[in-house]
Design brief:
Blueprint lengths: L7 H19 L5 E6 L4 H17 L4 E6 L5 H10 L6 E2 L6 H6 L7 H6 L15 E2 L2 E2 L15 H6 L9 H11 L18
Parallel strand pairs: 1-2, 1-3
Antiparallel strand pairs: 4-5
Length: 196
């Protein structure tokens, strides 16, 4: 299996996720910590498995159990689990869910835990990602990125492509049509931090 924890940013990501999100569960002295996530691709699962192994190696008294779910329906499933009293100890959530989940008591503020950590632990997390709600910080980023598609209209026109793709199939076909190795012209897609 390929290792995704070799880069400094991946190690920081692993440390951030493992420490910042698991601390609420540790305060309850649990030996099994359930972590709900939606990383479903093979690469994403391998990356999360490495995070789990790294955390458990550093904390042998804790069994970190990943609870995988598809992204579709994840929000509503979390609400149902909360109402049933079965919410996992740690949730991977979207930033736009913070206010709702905080108001429902599904997540708790991290301010005291953050204050207890050395400042360099958070040095690589820009202030813009310190998400607060009602003056308290409930969230630390697992990943960040811009969701946008920029394209070169001249290249599209030269290839006879009318405009940007609207589906993944169109995206793949557009990339094939624009990739010309003999001219050193390649269509490239970006990735998520957990999907290298």
């Amino acid at each position: 299996m390929k290792s995704y924890l070799k880069s400094p940013s991946a190690r920081l990501l692993a440390l951030t996720v493992a420490t910042a999100f698991v601390l609420p569960a540790l305060a309850q002295a649990q030996t099994e910590v359930r972590w709900a996530q939606w990383k479903g691709t093979e690469v994403g699962q391998e990356f999360m498995a490495e995070l789990e192994a790294a955390f458990e190696a550093a904390h042998p008294d804790i069994d970190l159990v990943a609870v995988d779910s598809p992204f579709t329906g994840f929000h509503d499933r979390a609400l149902v689990l909360h109402q049933a009293g079965q919410l996992p100890d740690v949730l991977m959530i979207q930033v736009d869910w913070v206010a709702e989940f905080a108001d429902l008591g599904m997540i708790e503020p991290l301010d005291e835990r953050i204050a207890a950590e050395p400042p360099e632990f958070f040095a690589n997390i820009p202030e813009t990602f310190h998400t607060t709600w009602r003056g308290k910080q409930y969230y630390l980023p697992l990943e960040s990125g811009a969701v946008a598609l920029y394209y070169n209209t001249d290249l599209f026109e030269a290839a006879g492509i009318d405009g940007p793709p609207a589906t993944w199939d169109e995206f793949a076909e557009t990339a094939r049509r624009l990739t010309k190795p003999e001219e050193m012209q390649f269509a490239v897609t970006g990735t998520l931090a957990t999907e290298p």
